[in-house]
Structure formats: structure tokens, C-alpha cells
Amino acid sequence: MISKTQSLDSFINNSLYEKNKGYYQRKMEFGRKGDFITSPGISNLFSEMIAIWIISFWENLDRPEKINLVELGAGNGELLEVLIKTLNKLEMVKDKFKFFIFEKSESLKKLQKKKFLKNVKWLNNFSELKNFPTIFLANEFFDALPIKQFIKINDEWYENFVLFNKGAGFSLEKKKITKKKMEKIFNQGIDKNQNFIEFSPLMVKFLKSICKKIKSSRGGILLIDYGAFDKKMYDSLQGVKNHKKVDIFDDYQNIDITHHINFNFIKQIVNLNGLKVGGITNQGNFLKNMGIDLRAEIISKKMSFLKKTDLYTRIRRLTHKDEMGELFKVMFVTTKDNNFKTGFNDIKI
């Protein structure tokens, strides 16, 4: 049972992750029948391009005999399933990768464990990983983490809380925040020239732990999510149901709650924790740089007209600027001495 007043991130956490009740803790459907679809569900070519990138990065790391591959929030396992099949087919990398999933949802863990009967281990903490080079993948992971929001009004800062009134439902309520507390928030890497702040404390915690692991063992993290490069933060909180935007209070524990990632903030976090952004671009550029158009051309040669049309419709959805190609960004974070650039144009943020 939720309390009468709670912080926004507590409300989101209860809505999404409360045991046996939260949206992500019950049986979920992905794709057209569900509330949303992710890139691996649109086309296997997305996952194949990620596999090519992983192999290229493995070569950059001097082809280690043992390497950890960790997917953060693997969903229904579509991406990892293709990665395992692809990597295990290639003799030069076969048996070198150890596969792991870090998953917050118990319901999705059960689904994943049915799909991956062997070859995969589930992590509760990144310290469980052996000290081999490690590649982290975060495809639409951070956008599903609970967030806090702060608003500046007449030089005073306020935090958004959620008020529950029996009979009237949920509503937002502002509470004044002390300068001392705001200083702690800014010290995490948030640009002080803001009138509105939106961030996930859990994302900061996870990124710090991931940075520590990458620094100690080499490797990197590939983040793919929707968001912006802007230094200026904005209110991006939204609910999603049946592939449409809805109010976050519309149907408690029965809708997805998500937000846009501020990639400039991520850059500040990783810099403060001793790593660097090795590359950043949009999803369309990344997939094209990795060869998705050439791969489609090769496999479509023997397809019927209808199958070919379907293939290119799916690729358009992944890469076109009016679809997912521009809104979704791809960021690569690695150690300061690593100059691996495959898949990225030089875009300064």
C-alpha cells in the first residue's frame, strides 16, 4: 500500500517494481500485443549490428581469451538470444564470452530463465563478475529507472512529490528543498545553469559501479536509449500504454512509466568517475555505420517482394530520422586510453 505523500521516484518505483503488483513485476507482453516494442523486436538486424560492434571491440581489446558480456535489463531476451547465437557461430570468439543479465524485474527474470536454459548467469551485483574485460550493453535500460524532478521558482528549488487523495487519485505536489541538498545534487555532475532538473539516482548509482568495473578490468558500455544531448534539462516524464503516451497517473501499476535520457549528464557522470565518452551519435547513424543497409541488401536478394518490403519497412523504423533513427541515441563509454571509434561519428556534446 502506498503512502499518502511520497517522492516521485518512490511512486515510479512502486508503480513499476512493487513485488507481485508493479508493472514490470507481472507477466508482460512485448511487441504489438504489449504496450511497447524495442529495437531487437523490430528486426534481428539490429541485434546483428550490435554483435558486429561487440566483435570489433573485442578485437580492439587484444582478443582476450575470456570476456564478460553483461546486458542490463534484457527484457524478453531478444537481443541477447541473437548475440549468443551469432558469437557462438564464429570460431574466433566461440566460448570466449561469458554471458550475464542484470535484471530488476522478477517477472522478466522468469521469462529469461525459460529462454536461456544454459550459458547465461544473472547478477545481483556487478562485483560478482570475475576480473576479465567487460562489455556492458544497456538498450532501453536507464529510461525505465525511477526519477526525481526539481523545479526552480523565484530562485528557490522545489522537489516534485506525489500526493494521494482517496477518491481523487494522484497529483503532483511541490516541496521546498534546502540549498545544502541542492548542492549535493549539483555535485553529481549536473550543470548549475538549470531551471528544471530531472535525473535518476539509481542510474547514477549503477553508472558509478559500472565505471569502477570498467576501470579495474578494461572494457566499456554501449548505451542505446531515447533522449537528448542538450545541457538544458527538461520535463520528459511520460506514461506509455498500447504504444501511446498517457498520463503517469492514468492507470496505476498498469502502464509503463519512462523518461528521456540526458546524455550530457551521463557524460559528466562518467568523466567524474574516471572514464570518457568514446563516441556518441544517433541510432540511425550507428546502424548505418555498422553496415545494416549492406546486410539488408545481401539477405533480401532471394526474398519475395512482400518480405523485402517488410524488411525495409523495419529498417526504416530503426534508422529514419522521423522514426527511431534520430530520437534514439547511442553512446560508448570506455577507459581514457582507449581510442576505439567503430560505429561512431564525432559529435561533440
> What name does CATH use for the topology?
Rossmann fold
How much beta, percentage-wise? 25-35%
C-alpha termini separation: 42 Å
- Secondary-structure element string: EHHHEHEHEEEEEHEHEEEEEHEHHHHE
Shape by Cα distribution: globular
The radius of gyration computed from the alpha-carbon positions, rounded to a whole number of angstroms, is 21 Å
Structural class: alpha/beta
Q: How much is the average pLDDT?
A: 91
- CATH level-1 class: Alpha Beta
Largest sheet, if any? 8 strands, mixed
Q: How large is the count of helical segments? A: 12
The level of helicity is 25-40%
Count structural domains: 1
Structure summary:
With about 350 residues, the chain is of the alpha/beta class.
